[in-house]
Amino acid sequence: MMQKRPQPLARDAMAYVLAGGRGSRLKELTDRRAKPAVYFGGKARIIDFALSNALNSGIRRIGVATQYKAHSLIRHLQRGWNFLRPERNESFDVLPASQRVSETQWYEGTADAVFQNIDIIEPYGPEYMVILAGDHIYKMDYELMLQQHVDSGADVTIGCMEVPRAEATGFGVMHVDATDEVIAFVEKPADPPGIPGNEDFALASMGIYVFHTKFLMDILRRDAGDPHSSRDFGKDIIPYIVSNGKAVAHRFARSCVRSDFESTPYWRDVGTLDAYWQANIDLTDIVPELDIYDKSWPIWTYSEITPPAKFVHDDEGRRGSAISSLVAGDCIISGSSLFKSLLFTGVRANSYSRLEGAVILPKVQIGRHARLTNVIIDHGVVIPEGLIVGEDPEMDARRFRRSEEGVCLITQPMIDKLGMTV
Predict the structure, then answer these.
(1) Does the keyword Transferase apply (predicted)?
(2) Is residue 422 very low, low, confident or very high in pLDDT (cuts 50, 70, 90)?
């Protein structure tokens, strides 16, 4: 076990979060917002996990690169992450693709999203850069990864997960030697290389990288001058360093933050409707795999000032109740029954309605007698009285976005096409 230094390395690091992704596999959920801005867990947004990890790790300089439909993301960052103060040597920069390098050039790739902002990063003088994806759900202490980076003398340290080889075909996979030095990087291999001594598993890249800042800037400038580069960390920067420098894998299990209730390292890419729905519904388990109640590693977010949730009516068939469910503030469960559901802020569920396996985003109104099973309901949707979803697959598929696993995404335009009385 590595010993922590008296002076945390995180104090001299900057976290740079790549949050420009569209997240097209989330379908209509990302029609109006970037994937990192999608709601998660009852109160937070997806990006809050990477940002909270950075803050909890002791990093006080943070930059967030945005691009696709960034308004809701930028608004969330301004409201929820405006507490870092320059007078305390802290900083929080939101960095849209502002055509700083060329008047016609947006961010061409993940590496370009850092390169275009070198003139903003360098004056802060961070010794280390922690490059993060802004669209994954996990808890991780980056200080431990920084320590390994320094101790190993690596040019880049790459965050990796151990996954069964059969499941690694959709990832970038690190082929490592016995010391975890990366000897080859393979993108979505048909036959992933196994881990030495544990050949049934492979090391999949998490899209988390640690560099010495000067080395990173030099390599980005070199890459920017290569006309054949796609300006991407996974496709260009990392393979170049593997071939010409020293890349080392950092295993997520070494720095994953776990409470007493979390038995295994937890990391999720909630990039499909099914994965997004499942990760939210998993939180309703008696002992969920992800402990969001762990006060030693809080998930920071914009927290609205709201009244408490309220449950009313106690008549047969009209009882405000919630079993194995998470209900945020300003929700009123008025004679509605909930089972294994997660409700964000400001939901109104009216009499005789029944929700099971429902992920309901903020400000949704559920009409009387509605029965909704295995659904995701987008922000602000008004569900008509008597609407039934989750009981007739063919009808569901005609009216809504139905996933491979039978989860229905419901948006207001879909409701409007039904022509039902609200």
Answers:
(1) yes
(2) very low
The hierarchical CATH code for the domain 310-418 is 2.160.10.10
Of 304, 351, 352, nearest in space to 330 by CA: 304
Per CATH, is 9-284 categorized as 3.90.550.10? yes
Supply the mean pLDDT for the chain: 95
Q: Which helix (H) or strand (E) holds 216?
A: helix 213-224
Query: Please, are residues 241 and 216 in contact by the beta-carbon 8 Å criterion?
Result: no
Query: Binding residue per annotation — 187?
Result: yes
Q: Are 52 and 7 in contact (CB under 8 A)?
A: no
Enter the tokens of residue 267.
């990391």
Is the model's pLDDT at 224 over the cut of 90?
yes
- C-alpha to C-alpha distance for 192 and 310, rounded to whole angstroms: 51
pLDDT in tens, 235-292: 999 999 999 999 999 999 999 999 999 999 999 999 999 999 999 999 999 999 999 9
Helices 47-57 and 142-152 sit at what angle, rounded to 10 degrees? 60
Pair 133, 205: CB distance under 8 Å: no
Residue 1 vs residues 9, 56, 67, 148: alpha-carbon distances, Å: 17, 20, 39, 10
The radius of gyration of the chain's CA atoms, rounded to the nearest angstrom, is 23
C-alpha separations of 159 from 182, 286, 288 in Å: 12, 30, 24
pTM of the model: 0.95
Same fold, 9-284 and 310-418: no
**175-200 pLDDT, tens digit each:** 999 999 999 999 889 999 999 999 99
Q: 205 among the known binding-site residues? A: yes
DSSP class per residue in 169-213: GGSEEEEE-TT-BEEEEEES-SSPPPBTTBTTEEEEEEEEEEEEH
Question: Is the Cβ–Cβ distance between 284 and 340 less than 8 Å?
Answer: yes
8 Å CB contact between 46 and 135: yes
What residues have CB less than 8 Å from 345, skipping those under 6 apart?
43, 304, 306, 328, 329, 330, 331, 362, 363
Distance between CA atoms of residues 13 and 109, nearest Å:
23
Residue 313, pLDDT above cutoff 80:
yes
What is the DSSP secondary-structure string of 277-337? HHHHHHTTSSS-SS-TT-TTS---------PPPEEE-EETTEE-EEES-EE-TT-EEES-E
Tokens of 412: 């207001």
Q: Per-domain residue ranges for the chain? A: 9-284, 310-418
